[in-house]
């Protein structure tokens, strides 16, 4: 297993270092481009429905894909009963996401495998930053009145600034869904532009809450407007909506990423979040990213997976690959 193609990136997920790409620069709002977006629903559904049957990996290849997925996980806790100790445990798991004996058996013991980031509420940013000091693992903070995004705009900006001050290198913002549902693209653009400015050097992920946007065309247009306004990543969901990440939504969003790159030259990252808890499911997201955008979008500077329980199932699958036996989930706690 020593030839697994896992780059020794140490999990650092900002767009810097040896995987550096040019950061997105805000473009003028092009309403003609936005209004011209169309989505073929039946074609999109057919595309994603056939994916699991057309693409599969087994044995060593599957282990390699799952190890790569770990480096792209934003290991997340966003619960009302979060505590500092829970966050510290999660940070410990981010630093050592797979048991040492399994990594040794896979020939990966010396590769510095970590998750892509830790994602927490603002209250725990400083705690996570301290726990991860010296690891290169960034802290992402959900912001702007997460998850509904219905607090006053000035408070949203202050929350972003406070998280950046505490050491967050990434900010996951939530958009105002009303702007999308009413077609007020100028308001969405202005809001996203302000969020990007408040983030400064911290990278910003725009959460669209796709389950609230009603149509795939709305998802496509909202994706485009957020990228025009300077988003570094576009993200599906807060994980709190009734419908979160899906392959159909993913297809539409990454095709908008591709179109944006073709027109502007800037590469935008993508983050599905909410409901991705099984290793077999994350493989489908990886396959779609590679097929639609290319190999570069399998790295954490352009691809993230917002998840809490996914890591436990991946580690469980890796143990099965090494030993031939499945173990109980409680032996692979996330934190």
UniProtKB/TrEMBL annotation:
Gene3D superfamilies linked: Aldolase class I
Keyword list, A-Z: Lyase, Schiff base
Keyword Lyase: yes
InterPro entries: Aldolase_TIM (IPR013785), DeoC (IPR011343), DeoC/FbaB/LacD_aldolase (IPR002915)
SMART domains per UniProt: DeoC
Enzyme superclass (EC): lyase
Transmembrane segments annotated in the record for this chain: none
Catalyses which reaction(s): 2-deoxy-D-ribose 5-phosphate = D-glyceraldehyde 3-phosphate + acetaldehyde
Pathway the protein contributes to: Carbohydrate degradation; 2-deoxy-D-ribose 1-phosphate degradation; D-glyceraldehyde 3-phosphate and acetaldehyde from 2-deoxy-alpha-D-ribose 1-phosphate: step 2/2
Family membership: Belongs to the DeoC/FbaB aldolase family. DeoC type 2 subfamily.
Alphabetized NCBIfam families for the sequence: deoC (TIGR00126)
Name of the protein this chain belongs to: Deoxyribose-phosphate aldolase
Source organism of this protein record: Dongia rigui
């Amino acid at each position: 297993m020593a030839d697994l193609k896992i780059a020794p990136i140490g999990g650092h997920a900002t767009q810097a270092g040896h995987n550096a790409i040019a950061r997105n620069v805000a473009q003028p709002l092009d309403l003609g481009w936005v209004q011209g977006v169309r989505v073929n629903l039946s074609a999109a559904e057919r595309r994603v429905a056939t994916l699991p049957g057309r693409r599969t990996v087994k044995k060593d290849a599957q282990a390699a894909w799952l190890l790569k997925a770990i480096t792209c996980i934003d290991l997340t806790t966003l619960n009302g009963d979060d505590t500092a100790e829970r966050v510290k445990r999660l940070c410990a798991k981010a630093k050592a996401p797979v048991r040492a004996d399994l990594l040794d058996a896979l020939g990966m013991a010396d590769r510095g495998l970590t998750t892509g980031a830790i994602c927490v509420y603002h209250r725990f940013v400083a705690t996570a930053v301290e726990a991860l000091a010296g690891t290169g693992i960034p802290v992402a903070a959900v912001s702007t009145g997460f998850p509904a995004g219905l607090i006053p705009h000035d408070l949203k900006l202050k929350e972003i600034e406070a998280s950046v001050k505490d050491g967050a290198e990434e900010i996951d913002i939530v958009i105002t869904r009303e702007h999308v549902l009413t077609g007020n693209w100028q308001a969405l653009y202005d809001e996203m532009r302000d969020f990007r400015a408040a983030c400064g050097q911290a990278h910003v992920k725009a959460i669209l809450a796709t389950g609230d946007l009603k149509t795939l065309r709305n998802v496509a247009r909202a994706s485009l407007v957020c990228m025009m306004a300077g988003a570094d990543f576009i993200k599906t969901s807060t994980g709190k909506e009734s419908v979160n990440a899906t392959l159909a939504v993913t297809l539409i969003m990454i095709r908008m990423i591709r179109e944006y790159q073709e027109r502007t030259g800037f590469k935008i990252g993508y983050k599905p979040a909410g409901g991705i808890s099984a290793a077999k499911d994350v493989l489908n997201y990886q396959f779609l990213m590679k097929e639609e955008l290319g190999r570069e979008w399998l790295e954490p500077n352009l691809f993230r997976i917002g998840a809490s329980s996914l890591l436990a199932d991946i580690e469980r699958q890796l143990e099965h690959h090494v030993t031939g036996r499945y173990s109980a989930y409680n032996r692979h706690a996330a934190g």
